[in-house]
Write a structure and sequence with these properties.
Length: 624
């Protein structure tokens, strides 16, 4: 027989509670102690202990015994029927919500709030239905995927597979001609970049002769069609812009806590406004993990990627998780599989981490003025790109132990309630914020030192303003050009890519923020004085004569800004190598040597995946 700990608190004759300073040791007097403090602590943590009337300081009267007995029976019944009770509660809540939803649609329909409620409800219902009925309908889908994955044993499936290849290629050509070649032929330069990056990955592949082109083709095809919908259709663009606006609106609630703690958050914008967003979003993500919502969403995306690309459940789940969480958090969902994963699967896990960003820092980047809709689409598009590039640079050469049952092995958070989940999420952000802050301080300081040193050496030979950014602007010029950047902006984009790769993406996005602000300033200026004769270029700087202002770094076209946004949207930099290697080594100590051997290759693959996403964005860019 057991009862809740909080229900029994023995009292001494003076009325004070025994052990009131430490509830873990209630009933632990020296006269009747039968458990060690560690055992008592364990029972306390489990929120229950064995009830023994003899351990009480006084005997219970009839009324107290009756109440205790009734309580014990209720608790026992609830525990034995907890699943049924939870289902009944869920059904009641669902029915009440649907009643509210129906009345809300009847009461006021047509404004933005009603559309938000409608879309959110539909997506939530679809997610619930999918996760509830998938086990009943998954057989034909898994059979189809297995057939595609084993074409040697199924000649008919091989024919179907090639038919799908041909149909997909024809669809891609049609879309390119109608949506790109005719209205914006200059965008076709990005195709050269796609071909160049694919060729580079193939040449640098760990085993070029063993490359399976199926995941490579479908990963890039998915990215292509995602981009066509997001960047070329009005409804797709408006949909992601709406999502971006909702993200901005959601993260703006951070100001309530920031203003209370720091009062004037505009005084130190980065520390008092940008960093608190990480804490807020981290707490929110932790709550969704506790509720199982994040697992359900990731499972849907993971199954979709696995079905389309033929990748294993573990690497597909990780790639899907990287859309929402960071490179060290996503592998937690596949921790049971890390010890037995193949080298190619580990490479895919690491590449997925490098090629994407965490949802917790997405708001921070949006705080720099980067359009959140492009950040969201970059996160979605980079997931299949990461798997495709990874399988090209590190093809599968071993037999995997993964199975379709792996999708059901994701666990919910270990917290006991929502409050603890939110608190844990906020606490975990301390490490993330500290890591961001110290890295930004260190790399900005190192960058300043390197620039001062290079400038000094340059002055010795008559070369002025020799900096790290200047070197990157020339060395990485071809990368920027292949991504579809116009030659006039290539040096600026190359500079941003270099800063992101050799320092981190925070510093790169801060540099992009300056260019975004410069273009807005230039637009405001030309609206007043006209475009011609009132300004001129002085090297990379733009001089606004009427305002007597010089935009030192100049500005870029909107297309170049979008390409930069996608190219920088990933953790693929030198500093992140140590972070990811340390995180994965802690989860799978036995694989540390394997992880160390492929981390550099994975970082390069992650960078190329970002460049590939930028190429697709440059290919489909269109001003709305």
């Amino acid at each position: 027989m057991s009862v809740e700990l909080t229900q029994i608190t023995p009292r001494l004759q003076d009325g004070t509670s025994k052990g009131q300073d430490n509830p873990a040791y209630i009933n632990s007097s020296t006269d009747n102690l039968e458990n060690t403090p560690a055992e008592s602590e364990t029972r306390y943590r489990n929120n229950s202990f064995e009830y023994d009337p003899e351990n009480l300081d006084h005997e219970m009267n009839g009324c107290q015994s009756c109440i205790t007995s009734a309580q014990t029976k209720v608790v026992t019944i609830c525990r034995e029927n907890s699943t049924l009770i939870l289902r009944i509660i869920a059904i009641v809540v669902f029915v009440l919500y649907m009643a509210y939803f129906a009345y809300a649609m009847y009461w006021k329909f047509g404004d933005e709030g009603s559309i938000r409620l409608l879309v959110g409800t539909i997506l939530a219902v679809l997610l619930i239905v999918f996760n509830l009925v998938w086990d009943s309908i998954k057989a034909p889908f898994e059979a189809c995927a297995q057939a595609f994955a084993n074409t040697d044993n199924a000649r008919k499936m091989k024919i179907v597979r090639w038919v799908l290849y041909v149909v997909c290629v024809i669809a891609i050509i049609i879309v390119l001609v109608i949506e790109v070649a005719i209205p914006t032929p200059e965008n076709l330069i990005s195709l050269a970049g796609l071909a160049a990056f694919i060729l580079l990955c193939f040449i640098c592949s760990r085993d070029p002769g063993r490359v399976d082109w199926h995941p490579v083709f479908w990963g890039l095809a998915l990215q292509f069609f995602f981009a066509a919908i997001i960047l070329r259709t009005q409804w797709g663009y408006d949909g992601f812009k709406w999502l971006g606006d909702r993200v901005t609106e959601f993260l703006a609630h951070t100001d309530a806590g920031s203003k209370f703690v720091f009062d004037n958050i505009s005084l130190h914008f980065f520390a008092f406004s940008i960093m608190p967003v990480v804490t807020f979003f981290s707490a929110f993500i932790s709550i969704t993990y506790y509720l199982g919502v994040m697992q359900a969403v990731v499972k849907v995306f993971g199954r979709f990627l696995s079905f389309c690309l033929g990748t294993t459940p573990a690497e597909s789940l990780n790639a899907a998780g990287n859309i929402f969480v960071g490179m060290t958090e996503a592998p937690l969902m596949i921790k049971p599989f890390l010890d037995t994963m193949t080298i190619s699967e580990l490479h895919a896990v690491m590449t997925g981490g490098f090629a994407t960003i965490a949802g917790s820092v997405l708001g921070a980047y949006a705080g720099f003025g980067v359009p959140p809709n492009h950040l969201l689409s970059a996160s979605v598009m980079s997931a299949p790109a990461a798997l495709a590039i990874s399988k090209l640079m590190c093809p599968e050469t071993e037999r995997t132990t993964s199975s379709s049952d792996d999708y059901n092995k994701m666990k919910k958070g270990e917290q006991r309630n929502l409050i603890e989940a939110a608190s844990d999420g906020a606490s975990m952000s301390i490490t993330l914020i500290a890591n961001i802050v110290v890295n930004v301080i260190a790399f900005l300081a190192l960058l300043a030192f390197v620039n001062a040193t290079l400038t000094w050496f340059g002055n010795r030979v008559g070369v002025e303003d020799l900096t790290f950014e200047l070197i990157c602007s020339y060395v990485l010029y071809p990368v920027a050009l292949f991504m579809g950047t116009k030659p006039a902006d290539c040096r600026r984009v190359a500079e941003l890519v270099g800063v992101k790769t050799f320092t981190n993406e925070f510093i790169a996005y801060r540099s992009l923020q300056e260019l975004l602000q410069n273009r807005q300033t230039f637009l405001n200026y030309t609206e007043t004085y006209g475009y011609k004769d009132e300004w001129y270029w002085d090297g990379q700087a733009a001089v606004l004569t009427q305002w007597n202002m010089t935009l030192t770094r100049g500005f870029m076209e909107e297309r170049s800004e979008v390409i930069s946004t996608y190219a920088l949207c990933g953790f693929s930099n030198v500093g992140s190598m140590g972070i990811l290697l340390g995180g994965l080594s802690a989860l799978a100590p036995s694989r540390k040597k394997d992880l160390s051997s492929i981390v550099l290759r994975a970082m390069i693959a992650g960078n190329i995946a970002c460049f590939f996403t930028a190429c697709i964005a440059g290919l489909f860019f269109k001003e709305f």
